[in-house]
Amino acid sequence: MTTPDRPRTLVTGGSRGIGAAVARRLARAGHDLVLAYRTDAEAATRTAAEVEALGAACTVVRADVVDPGAVDRLFSEAGPLTGVVSNAGATLHIGPLAETPVEVIARTVELNLTSALYVARAAVRAMSVSRGGSGGVLVTIGSGAATTGSPGEYVQYAAAKAGVDAMTLGLAQEVARDGVRVVAVAPGIIETTIHADAGEPGRLARVGPSVPMGRPGEPSEVADAVAWLMSPEASYVTGTTVRVGGGR
Ligand code: NDP
Fold this sequence. Notes:
Blueprint: E1 8-12, H1 17-28, E2 32-37, H2 41-53, E3 58-62, H3 68-78, E4 83-86, H4 102-127, E5 136-141, H5 145-148, H6 155-175, E6 180-187, H7 194-197, H8 203-207, H9 219-230, E7 241-244
Helix pairs in contact: 1-2, 1-9, 3-4, 4-6
The protein binds NADPH dihydro-nicotinamide-adenine-dinucleotide phosphate.
């Protein structure tokens, strides 16, 4: 059994947005990090420098999480882990389902659900005690969309993220006696470039005021929840989704 001196956590989509905020927050909590990204090497290098400045060891790996072979290579390069944050994802498109191209539907489900299953499978294989791991925590980033359904915006994304919640519940029960906790965090609308990348740069200004708290969330507010779930303070928390949505 491998027991690293410091927690060592892999964050997919750790280059930018919520994933980068999680990496910084975990570095402050004493974790070493493996940051995975797909294309934005500059952002990944910048985030790695930030976490190293906070005292964390950091390895950066390029891996497209929709490719199961790349996910296997990522975990093999990562080495022993005590935590995985499965965060890579994107809405990709905004509009009613009937107007959404079928290729976009397929890509959305592949990126937000299928890849989360690949990462979760690899995480359990890496961390479970029965396979020689030290035990650990898998946190998957879902979405508040899973329970609102996101009508008129991205029903296909909401459906994929609902799948993440189901995976979290079932997998947590599968591995509860094997040293691994499995939890999800469901953010509401958070200030990152995900909205502009999906084609609506003004979405934060349009939707933010309708949130009960009257504003979008900060990536750091999601990161704080992730850090708590990964900490020993959450030792009896598994198989659940924690919503970080300002009341919605
Ligand atoms: P960003 O667009 O800011 O960052 C996305 C990250 O995911 C980047 O690091 C990107 O890498 C990586 N990524 C995207 N596709 C792949 C891929 N195929 N393989 C590997 N990495 C990939 O998004 P957010 O930070 O906003 O979102 C993070 C998570 O939070 C997502 O799962 C999203 O669905 C969820 N979420 C976000 C909300 C929001 O309002 N922002 C609300 C609810 C949930 P690279 O830099 O290389 O492109």
